[in-house]
What we know:
With 479 residues, the chain is α/β, with parallel strands linked by helices. Helices cover 52% and strands 9% of the residues. Strands 3-2-4-1-5-6-7-8 form an eight-stranded mixed beta sheet, with helices on both faces. α15 runs parallel beside α16. It is flat. The N terminus is likely disordered. It binds guanosine-5'-triphosphate and magnesium ion.
Amino acid sequence: MGFFxxxxxxxxxxxxxxxxxxxEAVSAQEPEAGAxxxxxxxxxxxxxxPAPEAAVPRAASVPAETPAPAGTSDISEEDEAxxxxxxxxxxxxxxxxxxxxxxxxxxxxxxxxxxxxxxxxLDAPQDEVQNFVDDxxxxxxxxxYRHVExxxxxxxxxxxLALDLEDEExxxxxLFLKISEGLSRTREQFARRLDTLxxxxxxxxxxxxEELEELFIMADLGYEPSLELVERLKERxxxxxxxxxxxxxxxxxxxxxxxxxxxxxxxxxxxxxxxLMIGVNGVGKTTTIAxxxxxxxxxxxxxxxxxxxxxxxxxxxxxxxxxxxxxxxxHARPAGSDPASVAFEAVDRAVKEGxxxxxxxxAGRLQTKVNLMEExxxxxxxxxxxxxxxxxxxxxxxxxxxxxxxxxxxxxxxEAAGVDELILTKLDGTAKGGVAIAVAMQHHLPITFxxxxxxxxxxxxxxxxxxxxxxxxxxxxxx
Length: 479
Ligand SMILES: Nc1nc2c(ncn2[C@@H]2O[C@H](COP(=O)(O)OP(=O)(O)OP(=O)(O)O)[C@@H](O)[C@H]2O)c(=O)[nH]1
Ligand SMILES: [Mg+2]
């Protein structure tokens, strides 16, 4: 994965140090002229004349198998101009992407060329540039996407994952925006009333706490979690000697950040890492597996998906389609097979085939007499017998739009099947953002990702501090 680390180095350095655009960073390590064994014969390799200020590194050559557009004699000038633009631009992925996508309306030669150009400007080795472009191209064909609007966010997402840029400011504010959009109704009801309460109340007296508790209940925190949160805030106020209502916002933010602070987990050391997806029907288990598998693939991992939801043939087919789309191996048996056997065989195969991550999809409801929890227990037993430590992660998927139900589901699955982490889906469609607080507080489980829509890139790492700020109508940290 030399490409990833090389590029990360460039990005990291340019960010923290003096904010140098990519081509500048590259020019320091410019390869010998004519580098790139994969260069197609007769292709218009351009940088015969050096650009001003030695700005155009190998970035100006044309990648193998990505034909140049018509009018190729202009290539070097165009590349030169592009390089200059990149150098002058703000060093953010979205800005760079904006520049290379200028004048590109749809998938085609110009896009492949520009993409390869950007990657090479970031010092990516030729074969990995080619892989990235080929992979993306194949994916567009499978998805039948043609126009830039259809795939722009996916492209940025892939670049961010490949370059390990997700925590960068740019990415964070994108996530923040999405969460804020998703939570806009909650915020109207909640943040505004909080504002009023904080502004109008002088002292932190009983009347204040009662009103705050009511607000929490309205934001769908639920009765008990609301009481608990108020108690925690009272305690924090005592500790920090806060007595005025106008300081309560800071108290609440700090408390929420603490509630969302998840303990760090030791990741699995013995591949394949086995991830078991559980949850009631319709919450988004299968889609979330596809999204996680996609992320893992983008990070260069070998992925397998197993269909241990064997009740409907349609469910198996749905999963198979996803597996094909994201480029994961797939293991299934005909509908009606024993789910635990499918899981068993899948681990066996995953070990033999050197898989890095195995996702096991399960049914959300059983149409037989078998109890869902018994079935899950059986799957877990089989997995751990076959592969030590498996399932390494048992992820409970919760649909945020179901509000309080999420709490009882968590309790049930935790007791009966074991849960290591939570993923909250459909946050884009809910006014019930408060449920995340309740679940995290009552069950002390980390929320690792949130689903913000149906597209592949709509699964985002959960950032508790940002989420708390979005919920309270505050700008994202760093804005
Ligand atoms: N808006 C939105 N829809 C989502 C999200 N996650 C999943 N969905 C949709 O929710 C529906 C159900 O998703 P599935 O992945 O099939 O749910 P499941 O838990 O596997 O369902 P069963 O297999 O029937 O138990 C699908 O239409 C998904 O596209 C999300 O984050 N936002
Ligand atoms: Mg499913």
